[in-house]
Amino acid sequence: MRRKRFTDARTEVIAPSYMRILTFSTLYPNAARPGHGIFVETRLRHLLASGKVESKVVAPVPWFPSRNPRFGEYAASARTPREESRHGIDVVHPRYLAIPRIGMSLAPFLLAAGAYSTVRDALRSPEEILDAHYFYPDGVAAAIIGRALKVPVVITARGTDINLLPEYAIPRRMILWAASCAAAVVSVSAALKDALVRLGVDGGKISVLRNGVDTRMFHPVDRASRRARLGLSGTVLLMVGNLLALKGHEVVLRALCDFPDACLLIIGEGREEPNLKKLTGSLGLGERVRFLGAVPQEQLAEYYGAADALVLASSREGWPNVLLEAMACGTPVVSTRVGGTPEIVAAPEAGVLADERSPRGIGDALRRLLRSYPDRGLTRRYAERHSWAATTAGQLELFERIRSARTAGR
C-alpha cells in the first residue's frame, strides 16, 4: 500500500494512504428502518473489512413533516436521525423533497439538491470516489453532484432500476446520461449487464460484481430443535422479502393449495399485506400461513434453517440475496427464472428454477425439488463458493484503477 508522509510540530509520521470512498444511496439501513437496503450496507462492511478503504455514508431520506405511525414509510423517514453510526460506519441522512406519484422526472434533481451540501462537506480528498447505488434517482443525482464537485462517480445497478424504470422515456435518458458521466458502472449480475448494454450503456465500462453471502451470519442450525420451538411440522416453505406484487406472494399462496401437508412462513412487510391476508382467508389457508412481519437479519438463519425450501416467485430481480442466504443455511430454493437467478441456482444442490411464473409452475418446481431433495450439507457448500471475497477484490481493483487514472491525469 502506498504511504504518505505528514508532520506535526514534534515529529514526522508515516501513515498508510487508504483509498477513500463516499457511499451514496437512498437504499441504506437506518435506526427507523433497520432492514432498508441492507444489501448495500453489507457490501460496504465487507469492503471496509479489507482494511484498504475508508468510507462515510450519505444516505438521504425523503423529508416528511410527521412521525405519526399512521403515515407508514413516510413517518419512518421523519424518525430517521440526522446522523448515526452503524457498525462503526458514520452515516449522514440529509433530507430531500420527494413528490409522490408525480415526481418521477424531478426526483434526481430534488435528491441532488437536498444532498449536495452534505456530500460536498463529507468529501475530504481530491482522490475520493463517489460510490452510488441504484441508478435512478440515486445514480443520476450522484452524477449531477459529481460533475459539480469534479469527483469521479461509480454507479451500481441493482435490478428494478434497469429492468423497469427505463420503460419511461425521461428516466431512460437520465440513466444513459449518468452512465456516460460515470467513471465506471457496476452490475450485480451478468444478466443485468446485458440489460444495460441493450439499453445503450458502453459494455466496456461495466464490471459484474455479484453480491456474496455472509456465511458466518447465515449458517446451518439444529433443524429439529428450531422446528419444535417454532411449532412446525410437515413441509415448511418460506418466503422472505417485501410484500409487493412483483415478489409473487399471491402466486405461491395459490400453489400452496395443492400441498395440503405444507405450511408457508412469510417474512416481510409491505403494502400488499392486507390483500395477501384476505387472499389467504378466501383460499382456506388461514391455519397454514403465518405472516411474521419484519425479522432482524441476524435472526433469519433460524427460519431459513427450519424450512424445507425458500420460495421466490418474483417477476423481476437483479441478484436476490435471499437465495444465497437460504442456501448458506443448508436450505435449497425454488425460484422463477428472472434476472440473476439462473446464475445463482446453477446446480441441483442449489434448488430448482420454475418453468413459468404461475401457481402450476411453482408447484411443479417444488415437486421436483421434494422428489430429489439435495443433501443440505452440499447446499451449504454450494453457497460457500459465493463469498464476498471476490466482490471485495473486484471493488478494490476498480477503485484503485479509477484513482490511479485520476492521479495520472493531474
What is the number of E strands?
18
CATH architecture title of the largest domain: 3-Layer(aba) Sandwich
Kindly state the mean pLDDT as a whole number?
91
Unreliable parts = 1-16
Largest sheet: 8 strands, mixed
Structural class: alpha/beta
In angstroms, what separates the terminal alpha carbons? 21 Å
Question: Any idea what the radius of gyration is?
Answer: 22 Å
Plain-language structure description:
By secondary structure, the chain is α/β, with parallel strands linked by helices. The chain has two domains: 230 residues, 3-Layer(aba) Sandwich (Rossmann fold); 162 residues, Rossmann fold (3-Layer(aba) Sandwich), CATH 3.40.50.2000. The strands form four sheets. An eight-stranded mixed β-sheet has the order 6-7-4-3-9-10-11-12, with helices on both faces. The longest helix is centred in the C-terminal third of the chain and has 20 residues.
Please name the defining characteristics of this protein.
16 helices; single chain; Rossmann fold; six-stranded parallel sheet
Give a topology summary.
Layout: E1 3-7, E2 12-16, E3 19-24, H1 38-48, E4 53-58, E5 61-62, H2 73-79, E6 83-86, E7 89-92, E8 95-96, H3 107-122, E9 129-133, H4 135-149, E10 153-157, H5 160-163, H6 169-181, E11 184-187, H7 190-199, E12 206-208, H8 223-230, E13 235-240, H9 249-256, E14 262-267, H10 273-282, E15 289-293, H11 300-306, E16 309-312, H12 321-328, E17 333-335, H13 341-344, E18 351-353, H14 359-371, H15 376-384, H16 389-408
Parallel strand pairs: 3-4, 3-9, 4-7, 5-8, 9-10, 10-11, 11-12, 13-14, 13-16, 14-15, 16-17, 17-18
Antiparallel strand pairs: 1-2, 6-7
